Amino acid sequence: MSGSGKGGNNRKNRHRFSGRRDETQKHDFKKQTDNPLTGGKIEKTRAQHEQSRWTAPVLPANPITTPDCPWCGKPIKDIATAISDKDTGSPVHFDCVLARIGEMEALETGDSVCYIGGGRFGIIHYNNPPDTRDFTIKKVFEWEVKDNISEWRKPISEYFSIT
Fold it and tell me: Is 21 among the domain residues?
């Protein structure tokens, strides 16, 4: 590298690293510092520098149940990804809802069923299917009401809200 200073290596008083630090670079855990608020000197010890140890949160006593999906009959292994049935409120597979909406609606070329948030699904039309940035929402399905919390979600929320 040239010594013109354009390479970003132009700091003054730069020392080569020889494998040992000199006394000014050592991190001393016990040093005297002036505190302008108290007017005196405060001694910092190693105990003040150490962070408290992490303790695992206590899990709730009731285990998470794995109910069966009423639409396909298979167990819902990941209950956190389940969604409420529109009619009964029981948990169903997320993929089962996508498949059911896809069967109910006539999808054209470039259309797909997507979750658009807030308990809603939509039929999305991609103008150029390889480029998923350019799309329009053709139809919206209000699947879950945001204000209604299903009973089956309450014990699950205890596991996700422990920290």
Answer: no
